Amino acid sequence: MFIYSKVLKRFGLFCKIYRLIEKYNYQIILEYNAVNLNCDKLTKLKMRKIFLLLSLSICVFTTFAQNFSYGVITHDDNDFDRNKIDSNANAVVLKEFGTSSIQINDGTGSLELIFEYHVKIKIYNKEGYKQANIAIPSYKDASREEFINTIKASTFNYENGRFVETIMDKKAIFKENKSKYWSSTKFTLPNIKDGSIIEYSYRLESPNLFNFKTWEFQSDIPKVYSEYLVFIPAVYNYNVSLRGFYKLSDNKSEIAKECLRINGIPIDCSKIAYVMKDIPAFVEESYMTAASNFKSAIYFELSDWQMPDGRKQSYTKSWKDVDYELTSEKTLGSQMKRKDVFKDLIPTITKNTTDDLSKAKAIYEYIKKQIKWNNYYGTRSDDNIKKALDIRSGNVADINLSLISALSAANLDAEAVILSTRENGTVNKLYPIISDFNYLVAKVNIGDKSYLLDATEPLLPFGLLPLRCVNDQGRVINLKKPSYWIDLTAFQKSSTSYIMDAKLNPEGKITGTITTHSTGYAAFNKRKEIKKFNSPDEYVEKLDERLPKLQILKHEIKNIDSVENTLTEIYEMEFSPIENATKDDLNFSPFFINPVGKNPFNLNERTYPVDLGSSSDERIVITIALPGKFDLIEKPKDISIGLPNGGGRYLLKTTIEDNILSFSQMLQLNKAIYQAEEYPYLKEFYSKIIQNQKSDVLLKKLK
């Protein structure tokens, strides 16, 4: 009887609430477990179904947490135990709150995005002091610019039983131009000590409505509470996505009546709160693409808008629409069509070629030499390829659109590939977002094979993209056919072999020759390193300085500029005498060639892939002729270990035979990308290698 009466009271309360909601047109959600039911559909349900649902749950008004008061520091803030979230944290975000809305600029009358941010951070030690150095990025172009204003910042220290506030002087704020498109507003909070609490807030005014405002829940320090509140006018439709490993703790929505007026017409807004609690820090480790691919964050992309006067524009286009725009665009498709620029040059460029492949290679080498990269990325020509050729300088698109045009002028099948570099992040595959792409390369199809080419790097061989371009997939743009996706993978591995042939004299000095062969990315990186110096001799001189126990007597480096061939380095070397070599026992480490000194994988858990860019193969073979007969008393353990599913292996073997000490080592990583679940195996794999490389060789002379 009590339960029945209680349900009736709930039902009566619900009916009053529902009528009130219906009157003011609020959107209310009925929640039961993971099921959401829109309340304005309830009138279509029979009373029996409503009664059943009400016995489980009732609709209530959605409540939203508001921005917290500035300058209110509590003892709970000061005494917060970091062990609750991360015992190793140098600083912790106690609370952060942000809000975004679209408003009319009173000065210009145009719509703009207003973003307001407020955060409170507890600092524990000197490593956490860097959290007091703030840099707020803002975008600008020829016609639009974002503005940062209303900055407040304070440091709070607990002294003599009370909180003492140090307010940042406004003179500490300065602006730094980072590039032609980006600037940064910077400031440093004052009086930072162990245990300080810092607090700051600011307002950003932006004309960019397309991406609304991304909210990153994860940062380089853990967060106790993070909330983002957005007001999206009904005239705008955004595609919203949550990226990253961690999920929302709470997500609430309701209607905010008349949040905006356009030409006197009131517009309602969707008021949506996104909440995440107890968020681990995002720790960047070796071998990863852009952190933005993996941090837990909310992203917004404008789908379309429709104004009260009937004007409408859609931004979510099909690739068919985008193909037409790109191939018709003056700075992209029109440049691909400019065979006239190279028509008269092609006979000279290709005069010594015998087939299409050699013809393509000759054109590729010509473009690499003729146009120097100005270090700017881009998917469009800055002006036109004729100008880039004349001034012999251009951005990525200038160079590679020139390559495409030249290949086409030679009657080769050439296409453009737009892509996003590794540091720029992956692109949206659900619908075209052209702003996701920041780079353009060439694709040439010869017979049944295709080759991806980037002529910005003189030291790259034909068919090898720089690792910055090896990032998921790119979109192939063809002047006559529909565009399509292509995998951006490294078709060559990074391969290095070291062969040492030496002898140990009675005084304990080792002399001999080390020959190194490098191909693929290993050769490309080594060539770039050599080219940083004025000459190979200067490079070797610096190399000699970095190896204190070794002296390079002579050297020869082959194929520095012949990038299609193996890079070969030959060094005649002399090692410092082994200590106590005149005695019967010889003790030394055989791991003096490229040892694995530190495990690149140290996280307890990695929630994102290990992306090496390419597979790799490293082999080391050392043979040392000994002065007499020796017994091998101690040596590194002969091991053969592998990663699951053929992911890689490490082999090590040490032998002594006919007065020759032989030492061989092989490290293979057979994948370019290892998924997060494979991380523990990689970590253990490297741990075993490092542990084994701590062992020495002990030789005892036989009498």
UniProtKB/TrEMBL annotation:
UniProt keyword Transmembrane present: yes
Q: Which UniProt keywords apply?
A: Membrane, Transmembrane, Transmembrane helix
Q: Name one Pfam family in it.
A: Transglut_core
Q: Which residues cross the membrane?
A: 50-73
Q: Please name the Gene3D superfamilies in this protein's record.
A: 2.60.120.1130, 2.60.40.3140, 3.10.620.30
* The Transglutaminase-like domain, residue ranges: 345-425
Q: Which InterPro entries match?
A: Papain-like_cys_pep_sf, Transglutaminase-like
Q: Which domain of life is it from?
A: Bacteria
Please report the name of this protein according to its UniProt entry. Transglutaminase domain-containing protein
Q: What is the lineage of its organism?
A: Bacteria, Pseudomonadati, Bacteroidota, Sphingobacteriia, Sphingobacteriales
